[in-house]
Amino acid sequence: MSVADEFGARVQQMREKAQQLEQAAENTADPAERQRLKDKARRLKEQSAMQRDSTGIDPM
Fold it and tell me: Which of 35, 3, 7, 5 is nearest to 22 (CA)?
């Protein structure tokens, strides 16, 4: 596996985790927990975008 493939897989994992966090946020009744999960998902998305941009990986 090439370095680009490894970065691509890592970026994909981060996106998937962010999606899971967003779904969990939608399913929680606690407003503070919902916000915490949404914030964490946003940070993961931003981090994956930065990694994607720095490696030149095309977004899906």
Answer: 35
Please report the sign of the dihedral spanned by the C-alpha atoms of residue 8, residue 17, residue 19, residue 52. Answer: negative
In the numeric block, which tokens belong to residue 17? 């985790």
2 φψ region: left (φ > 0), alpha (ψ -120 to 50), beta (else):
beta
Cα 2 to Cα 6, 10, 26, 46: the distances in Å are: 6, 12, 37, 24
Q: pLDDT digits over 39-54, tens only?
A: 999 999 999 888 877 7
Instruction: Report residue 58 as tokens.
Output: 């095309």
* Claim: this prediction has a pTM higher than 0.85: no
